[in-house]
Amino acid sequence: MRADRRIGDGEQLLLRMNNDSDVVNALKLALADAPAYRVVPGFERSGALTVSCFAVADEVEAQIVVRGTRWSWYGLARAGDLRALGCHLVATDIFDGDDLMPLSDRHVDVIVCPYPPGTGDYATLAKAGRSSLRASFQDRFTTVLRAFDPRRAISDGVGQVP
Predict the structure, then answer these.
(1) What is the pTM of this model?
(2) Distance from C-alpha of 107 to C-alpha of 33, rounded to nearest angstrom
(3) How far apart are CA 84 and CA 154, in angstroms?
(4) How do residues 10-45 score in pLDDT, each as one tens digit?
(5) What's the start-to-end Cα distance of the chain, in Å?
(6) Chain centroid, CA 161 distance in Å
(7) Rounded to whole angstroms, how far apart are CA atoms 107 and 29?
(8) Which long-range contacts (CB under 8 A, 24 or more apart) does 24-32 make?
(9) 76: closest CA among 134, 123, 133, 12?
């Protein structure tokens, strides 16, 4: 977590979306990663479900960032719109081992919601428990991911996905 980085309401957040038609895989990853967010103030008890993003100034900067990666689909959302949905935005560093990853200074975790207190870590739950937990968060997670629509394809420049 980086306390030195404030995210203004007008900032754009870039989300890698690939060409997935649903949010199940992203939700599974967020549930599995929830314990890592116990270090974030307010989420110490159980962690949080998050979406990993990068702050960009505008569409042009988003395209520059995306072109420097292997991503093909992306979306943008204003920080203020995500806050209006009840999300918390936390600047965090991302590492590859002990090394800061490129663009780490722009990394922002969008906290979609807290992981339910008293629930075991996602990885320890039985298949039925994991399925039930995913179902309970599906609508909320979908709503937040749809804030980044329309999806854009880098191959189409600023074109929108039909």
Answers:
(1) 0.87
(2) 16
(3) 28
(4) 999 999 876 555 678 889 999 999 999 999 989 999
(5) 37
(6) 20
(7) 17
(8) 24/134, 24/138, 26/51, 26/141, 26/145, 27/134, 27/137, 27/138, 27/141, 28/122, 28/134, 30/112, 30/141, 31/115, 31/122, 31/130, 31/133, 31/134, 31/137, 32/122, 32/123
(9) 12
